[in-house]
Design brief:
Chain lengths: 423, 264
């Protein structure tokens, strides 16, 4: 590209002056204005935007909370209570931040589910998907450390249980745990570093989200049919069509969010976290926040400590290689008559893991957790690799524009599948 | 909307199942190990639009001050907070002045005692945990500032606990210095029964039954734990109504924008 001013199309002289030197207006217009987007999105495609909004809300409320929070074992609990009582609208900031974490996970779980159902992880979107899994991991680390900050009983004991997982690593495990703690138990150095990292990681997340969106804008969005747009008749400009459709979803999101914050702010939390941390008193049941329960269930399903840790981390790591485990070229489950049932059961199975993760690890719950864990992995390691070869997908529609016309739809149902067109 | 529920119906079901399980799970996860049914209470502050009964709050504070405060601190509260339960500034100043608090150091470097002011925290009954344990047979009376948030079904639990004392059933062995309580986990509690009929003399003439005192002090503790609850709920009603209207308008705009797209 030649060196020189950018040829700006903007009429406003000020905008034009800036844009010809730093073409941010052109970029925004291209990526969020005219950006060609499949015309057939359903409301599941709201959740990427909602996740972005959630991240921004968490950062905004978090910055203000940190102005009043004290990261010290002797003051942390009281400083949170001071935010609740004496800081102007401090209770609002804190409850938005607290429930914002739950909203973020609800939104991201639906976003991931959308990706699984419509095959958004398949070629050419593998890197897009992998970056998403990285974001998910960063979120989990951030949420875990954030939950430690109020220094209640669950903060302390949750931190103790989770950091102790690393002691399962052979040979160096114990040393790693001491290194993580900054001492010989979860204590003030641990709280300090968790606060520092809790502040840092969201900004790392913003960076990875940028890459996630950048990758999305190279491949373009997937869509409910899982076929590629073939021309302008298959797409719409992002604005105003999807800005307004995302806004509708955003309103629904805000209603749910507001209900949690204003009417049931502590429903998703644990009462024990309103008891100041006490290293001498172990709670009867140590449970993580609800959004970690499926993985906690997998951890406890294995009788061996190292095995449990490996499976727990493996349950997320396996998502990194999902694009290569699923051997079917058909993306959308709409055209996979067998796989869709296995995925539906996988979704229910994930809910069962969430439920059983909150139960004591004894009796029937352990058995349920083991079966559910087995199915969790079997779906990825056995079902998807085999079905790609054994399943006969339904015929794919010729284009997006055709079936979206009312009365249209996939024709030639039951006929041999056409080979998937590759982008 | 029909498209939304029609073609994506099955995938939607999956997402809903996941969401529902997450929500339903929260309650049993917290209540684990607690099979006892707490008595019905119907507090003024329950429900989506509940408010704190001011008379009950003031009576509850009296119970706390005359009974509970002998052992239990409420270190998150200041005397000025009592202005919120309907007491006048003069009344609160007089209440505060009944307590001596340590201040200092003064000009010659010595700590001294003075009557409490509005800005002082509630005076604690014991200077530290060890002193509290020494005076209570080894048990530590917990701080009550956020007690109703720190227990599952907090208000109902506190009320049940205060009214749950009785003689132990046949064959139940109490440990030395412990008391039997129907609602305490394990049924053995170090705290003795402190509420007896006419334990306090209410200024407003309300009969001080055990049930009445338990309800009043529970109301006071619920307010102490969530003093923002009334403002929060009022704000919530307004914000949700606003969002529903804005959501309706947004949906209308969406329909208008999409009207020219074939198939929608």
């Amino acid at each position: 590209m030649a060196i020189g001013l950018h040829q700006s199309d903007f009429k406003n002289p000020v905008v034009r002056w800036i844009d010809s030197r730093l073409p941010v207006f052109t970029m925004l217009q291209k990526e969020y204005g005219t950006f060609p987007t499949p015309r057939n999105f359903n409301y599941f495609w709201n959740f990427g935007a909602l996740a972005m909004i959630s991240l921004l809300i968490m950062i905004a409320t978090g910055i203000f909370l940190s102005m009043h929070y004290t990261a010290h074992t002797s003051y942390a609990f009281d400083s949170v209570e001071r935010i609740m009582r004496d800081v102007n609208y401090g209770w609002l900031l804190r409850y938005v931040h607290m429930n914002g974490a739950s909203m973020f996970f609800i939104v991201v779980y639906i976003h991931i589910w959308r990706g699984l159902w419509y095959g958004s992880y398949k070629a050419p979107r593998e890197i897009l998907w992998i970056l998403g899994v990285v974001i998910f991991l960063l979120m989990m680390a951030t949420a875990f450390m954030g939950y430690v900050l109020p220094w209640g009983q669950m903060s302390f004991w949750g931190a103790t249980v989770i950091t102790n997982l690393f002691s399962a690593i052979p040979l160096v495990g114990e040393d790693i745990v001491v290194w993580l703690w900054g001492g010989f138990s979860v204590d003030n150095p641990t709280l300090n570093r968790f606060f520092s990292l809790h502040y840092l990681l969201p900004f790392v997340t913003v960076g990875v989200v940028f890459l996630h969106v950048a990758a999305l804008h190279i491949t373009g969005s997937n869509n409910p049919l899982g076929i590629d747009p073939k021309g302008p008749q298959d797409t719409l400009p992002f604005h105003p069509y999807y800005t307004v459709k995302d806004s509708v979803g955003l309103m629904a999101y805000f209603v749910v969010f507001a209900f949690l914050v204003f009417f049931t702010p502590n429903y998703l939390g644990h009462p024990d976290n309103y008891i100041p941390a006490n290293p001498l008193v172990t709670p009867a049941h140590i449970v993580p926040e609800w959004y970690f329960l499926p993985f906690y269930a997998i951890l406890r399903a294995v009788p061996d400590k190292l095995g449990g840790v490996v499976l727990m981390f493996g349950s997320i790591a396996i998502l990194f290689i999902l694009p290569w485990l699923d051997t079917s070229p058909v993306r959308s489950m709409r055209f996979r008559p067998i796989a869709k049932w296995f995925l539906l059961i996988w979704g229910i199975n994930f809910a069962i893991l969430t439920w059983v993760g909150g139960k004591p690890a004894e009796g029937i719950y352990v058995t349920i957790a083991r079966f559910a864990t087995a199915y969790y992995f079997a779906y990825f390691l056995v079902v998807l690799p085999l079905l790609g070869r054994l399943e006969r997908p339904l015929a794919l529609p010729e284009s997006i524009a055709k079936p979206v016309l009312r009365g249209g739809g996939p024709v030639l149902a039951g006929a041999a599948a056409k080979p998937m067109e590759k982008a | 909307m029909s498209r939304f529920f029609g073609k994506t119906g099955r995938s939607l079901v999956g997402a809903l199942v996941l969401g529902a399980a997450a929500f339903l799970n929260a309650a049993p996860a917290r209540a684990a190990g607690e099979a006892i049914v707490l008595p019905e209470t119907r507090f003024s502050f329950e429900g989506l639009f509940g408010t704190y009964d001011r008379g009950s709050l003031q009576r509850g504070f009296q119970v706390y001050k005359e009974v509970c405060a002998a052992c239990h601190a409420m270190r998150q509260l200041s005397y000025r907070n009592l202005l919120e339960i309907g007491l006048s500034e003069e009344q609160v100043r007089n209440i505060a002045a009944q307590f001596q608090v340590v201040d200092g150091p003064n000009d010659v470097g010595e700590m001294f005692e003075r009557p409490a002011r509005l800005s002082d925290r509630f005076r604690r009954p014991f200077p530290n945990e060890n002193a509290a344990r020494a005076a209570n047979n080894g048990a530590y009376p917990p701080d009550l500032s956020v007690m109703t948030k720190a227990r599952a079904n907090g208000a109902d639990y506190v009320h049940a606990l205060l009214t749950g004392y009785s003689d132990p059933p046949e064959g139940f062995t109490l440990m030395e210095g412990m008391n039997y309580n129907r609602y305490f986990p394990g049924n053995q509690i170090a705290m003795p029964n402190v509420l007896n009929p006419d334990q306090v003399e209410y200024a407003d003439g309300t009969a001080a039954t055990v049930e009445q005192m338990a309800r009043d002090v529970t109301t006071f503790l619920a307010w102490a734990a969530e003093p923002e609850a009334e403002q929060r709920r009022r704000m919530g009603v307004r914000i949700i109504l606003f969002l529903i209207v804005l959501g309706g308008l947004t949906y209308a705009v969406k329909r208008k924008v999409w009207a020219d797209v074939k198939g929608h």
